[in-house]
Amino acid sequence: MTYSGATPAQLLPRIGQAWRAALLTCLPPRLKSLLSRQPPRLVVCPAAGLDAPVAELWRIVDEQRDFLGELTRDGKETLAQLLPGTRFDWQDTHVELPAQAVLTRELQLPIQVKNQLHQTVMYEMNRLTPFQPAEVYFDVRTHGSVARHTKIAVTLALCRRDQLAPWLQRLRQAGAAPNDLTWIGAWPNANLLPLNERPRRRYLTTWMTTTLIIITFAFVTATLATPLWQKQQQHRALTKALRQIKRQADLIPALRTELEQARAGSMAVLNYHAQAARLTDLWRELTTRLPDDTWIQTLNYVNQEVDMRGQSAAATALIGLLEPAPGINSVHFSSPVMQLSNTGKERFQIAFTYRHDPPAPPPQ
């Protein structure tokens, strides 16, 4: 990481870049390529050794580098005068030094100075290097703890201020105050320029950019989460429907059993009635076969057993009249025949069995 004593407001762009990078990994390739385009930057590349009075001006967008022209260190023209007709659409100016113009040194410092690393290196500059703090531009980078977490490994990068000051002054005079001072092969976010010499950012633009990033991130999150939420709702609805169907399916065996029991009961009643003798048929047979001088006073029918009482002019002849009747069997007198003096008829009590075979049921 790079530590340069940045304030929270100055760290916002870095936080925004981290969020933006995390967001881009979640997007489809086409949308990712559309949103991953970086804003244009003006890159100033002084000649090797920083002694040459000419620097190249480049406009860089992503991986595309467009050469704009050259800037002289001792000139007085502004960029608008030097580059007529050029589209000034960049927001930041970066100074990219040749690698040989920057000195680097690996250090180990007590871990207690981790939170004040920049200030510590500045105070110890004359001990760590041959220069005084006011003589150099520098930046530091940590690599983690060493020596059983008692020290931190640090890379110190610096360049001489007297060689760069004329160039920085020239850029400010040309209307392109530098935001970053880096070098070829520098680590990410490296910046040798002190905070007090960096141009103040427009906080409104920064806040708007951060807000837009947050809104975009929230929108993309909602877009990605909505199908999941819909699937979850559908899953819950299907689960509820399946539970209702299962409860209804569990009732089917009980209902089938009840229907079978009801059907069995109905069939038993129908069979009973089908097998039971029809009294109307019995009355018809008796009416047809018994003579007109015979009447029946009582007739009891219980479980195919018939007990019949009445009077007749010739009761003894009734047995022979009833025996040939269909369904009548075992005809006999259950008590002696008595002669009635007042009517001249005979009182009888005859018992027999009566079983009437029902007709065959129609084919199913």
UniProtKB/TrEMBL annotation:
Name under which the protein is recorded: Fimbrial assembly protein
Keyword Translocase carried by entry: no
Gene3D superfamilies according to UniProt: 3.30.420.380
Claim: Transit peptide is one of the keywords in the record: no
UniProt keywords, alphabetically: Membrane, Transmembrane, Transmembrane helix
Cross-referenced InterPro entries: ATPase_NBD, Extracell_DNA_Util/SecSys_Comp, PilN
Membrane-spanning segments: 207-229
Matches recorded under PANTHER family: DNA UTILIZATION PROTEIN HOFN
Residues of the signal peptide: none
Phylogenetic placement of the source organism: Bacteria, Pseudomonadati, Pseudomonadota, Gammaproteobacteria, Chromatiales
